[in-house]
Amino acid sequence: MTYWFRFFAFLFIVAAATPARAADPLVSAAWVKENYATEGIVFLDARHVSSFRQAAIPGAVNTNYGKDGWRIKKGELPGMLPPVDKLEKLIGKLGISNTDHVVVVAGGYGASEMGIATRIYWTFKVLGHDQVSILDGGMEAYFELGKKVPLSRNIPRPRQKSFKAAPNWDLVATDKDVAAAGTNGVALVDSRPNDQFLGVNKSSSVKRHGTLAGARNLPGKWLTVDDGGFFRRPDVLKKLFAAVGVKPDQPSIAFCNTGHWASLGWFVSHELMGNDQVKLYDGSMAQWTRKPENPVERAIRLD
What we know:
Blueprint: H1 2-17, E1 26-27, H2 29-35, E2 41-45, H3 49-54, E3 61-62, E4 72-74, E5 77-80, H4 84-93, E6 101-105, H5 111-126, E7 132-135, H6 138-143, E8 172-173, H7 175-184, E9 187-190, H8 194-198, E10 211-212, E11 216-217, H9 234-243, E12 252-255, H10 261-272, E13 278-281, H11 284-288, E14 296-297
Parallel strand pairs: 1-7, 2-3, 2-6, 6-7, 8-13, 9-11, 9-12, 12-13
Antiparallel strand pairs: 4-5, 10-14
């Protein structure tokens, strides 16, 4: 009896000491249909509340990407990662604890809109929460399952939970990382539209036209099928990376204007292609171009 007690106690200790395996980066609509009522899974719906009220996954929790505090303004810089304690409070208020598997749900209307899901996903990863996934294809994919798919119009009031972060700052690139990229063999991957990469146009959040010196352009719109809600397969993504001259296993930094498009680039490279040497430059061109001494490369000059 003593032997078996010690044996099972040993197994319990080993299991408790073994880190939980990270959740799959993408889950399908069919998976959601089978698991929507499973305890410990929180569906975090990031669509506009008006769409959420019309039809949502039963039990899903709604969050406002722009207003709830997923990104904040720091000085003149828009869309920055908030302080850890603020994010802990936000996530706990949404009824999410450290033991919950979070499935981020976007509408599935296009790559930019799916960027809401990838940015929130990246935020969870930065906070050290590996039990997070994205609904591939968004709610559009869920609706396509047919009339019998479980839906709800109820807006649940989440029960406050405790969420404590264990930040992984290796996922966040700094100005110094960007400045040293060329000498360190790190690829700079611009996730913005090609016209902004070339310097034809620029975002109002950016002070100067152009891109980071030596950067390659892999627009976020390329990363989903026909600029929709479904992510491209890893084998197809490898072809796209090769086409712009970036090795799939090369250390790299994804950037854009304010870190939204870049989250798509980080997600496909780090999570779908398995390159754990990828960082996201949170401030991106909005931050870089505010310092006159930081070099900018512009292929097309119109003035």
